[in-house]
Amino acid sequence: MSGTLKNFRSICKKIICIGRNYSEHASELGNTVPTKPMIFMKPPSAFVAPPNEIQIPPEWDELHHEVELGVIIDQQCRNVSKEQAEKNIGGYCLALDMTERKIQDQLKKQGYPWLLAKGFDTSCPCGDFIDKSQISLSSSVNIWLSVNGKMRQNGHTRDMIFSVPDLIAYISKYITLEHGDLILTGTPAGVGAVKRGDQIEAGLNGDNNLKYAMKINVASK
Amino acid sequence: MADSLKNFRSICKKIIAVGRNYSEHASELGNTVPTKPIIFMKPTTAFVTEPNDIRIPADWDELHHEVEFGVIIDKQCQNVSKEEAEASIGGYCLALDMTERNLQNELKDQGLPWLLSKGFDTSCPCGDFIPKEKISLSSSVNLWLNVNGNRKQSGHTRDMIFSVPDLIAYISKYITLEHGDLILTGTPAGVGPVRRGDLIEAGMEGEHDLKYLMKFNVA
Fold first, then answer.
1. N or C terminus: fewer CB in 10 A for chain B?
2. pLDDT in tens, B92-130
3. Assigned superfamily of B2-214
4. Does the keyword RNA-binding apply (chain B) (predicted)?
């Protein structure tokens, strides 16, 4: 089964994202900590992988970076419990939830959906598949991001408000999760702006010398 | 190319829905008319087709029906103009944008994303593919929906605030539209609740004797 998950970005039918899943990040944006996961989507057309670049839509000046641990579903699941959740996981990845922050703020004020701010092409830079066996959910993974060589975000998945099994259980109550689907599990504090020409580096470090890093540029034009 | 579109519900990678695209519907929900299209998504797991039922998630009591004219993309397009937009269309369908209205209102009040209220399994009852040549975008299509035999919604696509080419041009500025993608183009006035056990019938009529009908039970 996991053979096809190496190509998860090609078979993925949905990217479900979680907002506000690290309390420091909630505070930095002046938001309260939620009692239930806040879920939104990116379309699969949002995927971009190095050496391709993040393209800021022409009328916008900047985007915000958000580094996240991604979870890739292997076994289709619906209405699973927290306890059952882990066995549906196929693997993990490192990903960014690129966001147009000003538009997102306007949309929030108006009570509008977030798609425009979160779902544009290249809003999901995404690394390669990391097999499930390389990451134990009982351990913490460090995720970090730097811009032009300066560290901006540096967090630990143990600080997630809702754990990966919590998220899978919650989402699958309402939305069937399918083979190849990606869940972005939220971002730690330190989000900030990138502009055309900037270089983003991001990585994750885990137990047993797990190290994954990627570099992606923000296109100059 | 259009042959695979008969199976659009299987190949579709995204459903992009448009809110508030009929002014009477905007008013009935106490909303202002937008200056730009309001766009959101449903995942493709939302699809349900006859003879399967609409399933209200266990913790909810009712859903709102919203009958919509669907547009299916044939040719991948990015940043197309209104004039070029129609060339990318493969066909059309009838669909419903089922919504948990109370939840949507709470999410709106809190500035939160709409996915939970719009994207649950079976929130997109969807009819069959209608080839492009059966409907001319310069004519109007009548959409209607009944609950338990009572007419609830009846509208005309000519009353859309943003036309189909407008919507394709707007969306494709930011999001590449791919072969098999579905755009739900908004709902006319008359939205209201359905509960477990209700029967929804919906249809559309157009020029050249175009008629399409579908029925869904609410489990």
1. N
2. 999 999 999 999 999 999 999 999 999 999 999 999 999
3. Fumarylacetoacetase-like, C-terminal domain (3.90.850.10)
4. no
